[in-house]
Design a protein that fits this description.
The chain has 15 helices and 24 strands. It is α/β, with parallel strands linked by helices. It has an eleven-stranded mixed sheet with strand order 9-8-7-10-6-11-12-13-14-15-16, sandwiched between helices. It has a six-stranded mixed sheet with strand order 17-18-22-19-20-21, sandwiched between helices. Strands 1-5-4-3-2 form a five-stranded mixed sheet, with helices on one face. Helix 3 runs parallel beside helix 5 and helix 4 crosses helix 10. The termini are far apart. The relative contact order is 0.08.
């Protein structure tokens, strides 16, 4: 591809060389450089791409994207930009032929609910016969192919490559989770979203490696609504006013109050052995009854977001309702059938905030007991262990403390940290380090009306010990326990 065509939509300064050349490889990874490469020098927290310039030039790179003045041989074209990450996104879009122009692009952002909401949207669109791709925390879906995800939102080059593959597969729509880091690091630059969805915002992802403070977190989230044509917003969410600052999109809202364009009333909780869900009446722009076989007040908001989007795209009421009654999201309030009269649920809740929200919502179903099983990851902040222990001890009837991903720590050291928090609230607890045996214990003591929550692992199918990921899927463990009986 001609370098001149690749930079056509960019702002840049040509420092030396010519744009009249063919580029064979676009990369930001020095290991992938070769003859005819365009290498993008991205400054990072750990490594700086500028440091690899001698290496990539030796490998045959003929063009560089840089953020500062550099000395290279005269035959190497040097293009200076103010933001190399933004340039990478724009170059990747051009490299793959601007595939977003051929898709209806839908981005979902928020602290919670992104994964479930994107799956609901995809299920509705597919039910209406509209082929839809997905990019998110669990996986990337392109037709019948499911690709394991590493980040909630991939690097811009991967995003554009997935878009191109979707277009080539005949897919017309894509729903994707958009993290605050993705917006901060321009992973979703280089195109304009057709729709942006805001689920909610709570204090999270504040730290040295993510956002320095809440103001930066909010600012990054709000960027989506300066990069989309129409925004659909949770009218009840905290910080909505701040999220709307600087927005350039058309605005529509959903929620539980009449101030929203689409809102839910008469919310009812549905409970049967092995099944929890919600029902409500939809009002405002639409009026009909809705049922979702996923529990929790947040399910109402997630489904309202999905309905709002699909209504915009002309999806029929029948397709929407069918999707909501059949949707299952791996590791997100996922109810696993068992022979017992209790309800067994797997969820990804892996911090105190998400665990508390989950337990509070489960309690609204009036269970006989809530049995909460969880552990915490090794080589992570100890504060999370104390906080999760206290939350479970306070809100569950029985806390079962077990192992999660110990990484390079001893499982019992992590468990003992969790127990510090458990003791603060004084709730009943047991410790069973082996996760399978801990699950077996919960299933053996489960009684009619109990809700057993396996928290923390969610969609993960491994346990990381001493740098090695061993296969461990809680669904497999449950099946083995049942078969062993």
């Amino acid at each position: 591809m001609k370098l001149m065509d690749m930079v056509a939509r960019m702002s840049y300064i040509l420092m030396q060389g010519t744009l009249e050349q063919d580029i064979n490889i676009l990369t930001y990874d020095s290991r992938q450089a070769g003859p005819g490469s365009l290498f993008v020098c991205i400054p990072g927290a750990v490594t700086d791409g500028h440091n690899f310039i001698p290496e990539v030039v030796e490998k045959g790179a003929t063009a560089l994207i840089v953020e500062r003045d550099v000395k290279v041989p005269p035959h190497v074209t040097t293009i200076k930009v103010t933001n190399a990450r933004l340039a990478l996104a724009e170059l990747a879009a051009a490299w793959f032929g601007h595939p977003a122009d051929e898709l209806t692009t839908i981005g979902v952002t928020g602290t919670k609910g992104k994964t479930t909401t994107t799956y609901m949207m995809r299920e509705m669109l597919e039910s209406a016969g509209l082929p839809t791709g997905l990019i998110g925390t669990i996986e990337v879906i392109i037709g019948s192919e499911h690709i394991h995800a590493v980040n909630t939102t991939p690097e811009s080059f991967l995003v554009q490559s997935y878009f191109r593959r979707m277009v080539d597969e005949g897919i017309k729509y894509v729903v994707m989770e958009v993290s605050s880091q993705a917006l901060k690091l321009d992973r979703v630059a280089g195109f304009t979203f057709d729709y942006g969805i805001f689920t909610n915002l709570e204090e999270d992802h504040i730290g040295e490696a993510e956002h320095p403070d809440m103001a930066d977190y909010i600012r990054c989230k709000s960027l989506l609504f300066q990069r989309c044509r129409k925004g659909l917003f949770n009218a009840d969410a905290d910080y909505l006013t701040e999220i709307l600052l600087g927005h350039t999109c058309e605005v529509q809202t959903f929620g539980m109050g009449e101030n929203a364009d689409l809102y839910a009333t008469d919310i009812r909780r549905v409970q049967r052995p092995g099944q929890l869900g919600v029902e409500y009446t939809l009002n405002g722009l639409e009026h009909y009854d809705v049922r979702v076989d996923i529990p929790g007040d947040f399910t109402v908001y997630n489904s309202l977001a999905a309905i709002s989007l699909c209504r915009e795209l002309g999806v029929s009421r029948e397709a929407i309702l069918h999707a909501l009654e059949t949707i299952r999201v791996k590791g997100r309030l996922e109810i696993v059938p068992t022979p017992g009269d209790y309800t067994l649920m797997i969820d990804y809740a892996h911090n105190a905030m998400s665990l508390e929200a989950l337990l509070v919502n489960i309690r609204k179903y009036g269970p006989e007991r809530i049995i909460c099983l969880f552990g915490c990851g090794g080589n992570r902040a100890k504060a999370r262990r104390y906080e999760m222990g206290e939350v479970s001890s306070r809100l569950a009837d029985l806390t079962v403390v077990t192992s999660d991903n110990p990484r390079f720590e001893e499982p019992m050291d992590i468990i003992n940290d969790i127990l510090v928090g458990v003791h603060r609230a004084g709730g009943e607890y047991v410790t069973i380090p082996d996760r399978k045996e801990a699950i077996r214990y919960c299933m053996e003591i489960g009684r009619a009306g109990d809700i057993i929550l396996l928290a923390g692992k969610g969609h993960e199918d491994y346990q990381e010990i001493r740098g090695v990921k061993h296969h461990m899927d809680e669904r497999d463990l449950i099946r083995e326990i049942i078969e062993g009986r």
